[in-house]
Amino acid sequence: MDFAIIMKLLPGILGASLRIATPIALAAYSGVLCERAAVINIAIEGMMLTAAMMGDLVMLYTGQIWLGVIAGVLAGGLMGLVHAFFSVSLNTDQIISGTALNIFAVGLTGFAYRRFLATPTLSRPNPSTLQPIDIPVLDKIPIIGVFFQNRPIVYTMLILTVVIHYLIFYTPWGLRTRAVGEHPQAADTLGIDVYKVRYIDVVLGGMVAGLGGVWFSLEEVGHFDMLMTNGKGFIGLAAMIFGKWTPFGSLLAALVFGLPEAIQINLSSYFPNIPYQFLSMSPYLLTIIVLTGVVGKAVPPAADGQPYEKE
Question: What is the pTM of this model?
Answer without folding.
Answer: 0.93
